[in-house]
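Q: I'm writing up a methods section and want to include an example of the input and output format. Could you take the sequence below and give the corresponding predicted structure tokens, formatted cleanly so I can copy it straight into the document?
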Amino acid sequence: MILSELIKPENVIFVDQDKVNSALEDMVNKAFELKLIKDHNKFLKAVLERENIVSTGIGLGIAVPHSKMDNIDEFFIVVGILKNEIEWNSIDSKPVKAVFLIGGPTNAQKKYLGILAKLMLLIRNSAIRNKLFTAKEKTDITEIFKAF
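A: Here is the clean output for your methods example:
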């Protein structure tokens, strides 16, 4: 799976929220609007339940909330660039500046892990993170992932 196939301009939003749940709701709304998910409420509930079990704030200013469901046909990523940092209970105790909401089919764990591994490799790069955090346009985001 190529990240640039998943991270398209229409999948990028600039989120103007100050709470985790509100930011996630905006991002799930975008996934529903793009018809990436069929059941808005079920997906939102699954994402929030997962977040309540353990934070998806992986550190370095990034969160990767996710859910896999039987009624999702293909993997997708909605990228949320936060206008205001949000305290996400991250493993490094730092606020989050960018969120990658991942959804996909339940029966595709290997594909999911491949997507996650590529994403992690890129966001560990401080230059890429800085570009991500300072992006002003959707195309600024898609350019970052164009070669991956």
